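@channel sequence for tomorrow's demo:
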Amino acid sequence: MKSSVAPGIKLLTSFSRDSWYRSFILFLTFIFYTAYHLSRKPISIVKSELHRNCSTLVRPSDLNTSNNDTWCDWAPFDQQNYETLFGVLDNCFLVAYAIGMFFSGIFGERLPLRYYLSVGMLLSGLFTVLFGLGFYWNIHSLWYYACIQVMNGLMQTTGWPSVVTCVGNWFGKGK
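structure tokens (generated this afternoon):
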């Protein structure tokens, strides 16, 4: 009596090597673009820490803050125009992203794709980390945060054209 192969094994062996590679590349590009997208989110999370509601916090006894409602906020976001400053950061990112998208597709088609995608991901991660390190390095300059956002916006533009080109190359232009 001959034993039959399990249905799961039959399914796995029914795919060709090329199909496995294509599936793997599709999975990797999905993960890469997810990582790009996730690195856009820290600024929206950090905003609530840069300008907090100080009335709900306990004031340290050694802190001399007479009539200061923003004692727990991070300068320069401790001013009354903090919403405008957050808008400046958002606009720095979005304008750089919009302008960079015009050029990123051109570069993505002419440069080696794996290097372009890898360098773009690494630099995008670096600028996201640099934004967070501003707290630990005690940086209170709006220019620092704005420049980091501009550079992060430019690096973010390497994601979509690279991922689309990668999937297009692996699956063919007509599929």
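heads up for whoever presents: The chain is about 70% helix and 0% strand.
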